[in-house]
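re: the backbone from monday

yeah here it is again, tokenized this time
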């Protein structure tokens, strides 16, 4: 019996993909199998090697007011720029339409749903993906919906029952993501005290999620009541290595401050220098003090874009290059 050649391997890949989908069989590290969606934050995009991955589950967790909804709306704006709609499903009230508009979201292409139960949420999600051009599905506080499906009070129901419900939902949603080639993001609030249903449900979500982001709100910025400093830790990244934590300035009127991201990344990569209170870039004074420098970059978009392009180029230069997978030739 002749030994299988590399051409036979490619034949097997093509056969399984045509029968079971693109995710059935692939070469490890093939970049074409993992298109990404911009998070709306330059620092997060660089940390996640492009952003959220399509056909994979993403979890964003954090306490109330840490910026989970802001990141979800920014992702919705990104997917709308590709021509697809976005949907938010959950028991919590929908986000403010004015705030969503200021983040770049087209409210006419953002669907919101408050289903009465977890079963209804799954049915709505499946129908949206099947019959509508929804490219992003955001599930907010999914565990709260399944708590309504439990007999009696959630606190008196067996903890493993909630875990089984969440586990079944994760399997179904993971299959839907791959079947319809969409992005699915979970927003999970964290609490100081343990909740059995939440803990067991999070175990299923942690297992099936390929990317997990944990948000931690730092002290509000001094003299800027509308700004908050948030630390984002990538605690799981099954598609790449774990990056260092990222700190974002979130303005509760316009979202993540892009100017502060550019300044922080420029300082980290050595493109922006600091001498006392003064910041400079390529011999050009940017401003005195962090707040004044950020305001200058916000007003001068040409300069900010120039620094941003240099930051991206410098980041990729300093990042170890991954070898491109070998393209195999047909061999008889």
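seq for it, each position gets an aa:
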């Amino acid at each position: 019996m002749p030994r299988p050649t590399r051409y036979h391997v490619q034949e097997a890949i093509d056969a399984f993909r045509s029968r079971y989908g693109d995710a059935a069989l692939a070469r490890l590290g093939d970049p074409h199998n993992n298109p990404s969606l911009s998070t709306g934050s330059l620092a997060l995009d660089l940390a996640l090697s492009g952003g959220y991955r399509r056909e994979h589950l993403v979890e964003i967790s954090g306490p109330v007011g840490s910026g989970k909804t802001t990141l979800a709306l920014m992702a919705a704006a990104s997917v709308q720029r590709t021509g697809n709609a976005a949907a938010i499903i959950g028991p919590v009230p929908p986000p403010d339409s004015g705030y969503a508009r200021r983040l770049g979201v087209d409210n006419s292409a953002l669907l919101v749903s408050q289903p009465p139960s977890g079963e209804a949420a799954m049915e709505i999600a499946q129908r949206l993906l099947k019959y509508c051009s929804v490219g992003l599905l955001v599930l907010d506080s999914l565990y709260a919906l399944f708590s309504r499906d439990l007999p009696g009070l959630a606190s008196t129901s067996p903890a493993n029952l909630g875990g089984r419900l969440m586990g079944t939902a994760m399997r179904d949603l993971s299959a839907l993501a791959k079947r319809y080639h969409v992005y699915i993001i979970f927003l999970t609030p964290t609490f100081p005290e343990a909740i059995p249903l939440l803990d067991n449900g999070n175990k299923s979500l942690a297992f099936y999620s390929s990317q997990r982001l944990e948000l931690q709100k730092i002290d509000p910025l001094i003299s800027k009541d509308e700004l908050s400093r948030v630390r984002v830790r990538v605690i799981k990244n099954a598609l790449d290595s774990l990056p260092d934590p990222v700190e974002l300035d979130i303005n509760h009127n316009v979202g993540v401050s892009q100017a502060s991201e550019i300044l922080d990344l420029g300082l980290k990569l050595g493109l922006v220098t600091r001498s006392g209170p003064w910041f400079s870039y390529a011999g050009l004074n940017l401003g005195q003090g962090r707040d004044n420098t950020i305001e200058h970059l916000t007003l001068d978009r040409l300069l900010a874009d120039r620094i941003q392009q240099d930051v991206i180029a410098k980041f990729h230069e300093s990042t170890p290059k991954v070898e491109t997978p070998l393209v195999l030739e047909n061999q008889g």
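The domain at 31-251 is CATH 3.40.50.300 (Rossmann fold). Residues 107 and 239 are 32 Å apart (CA to CA).
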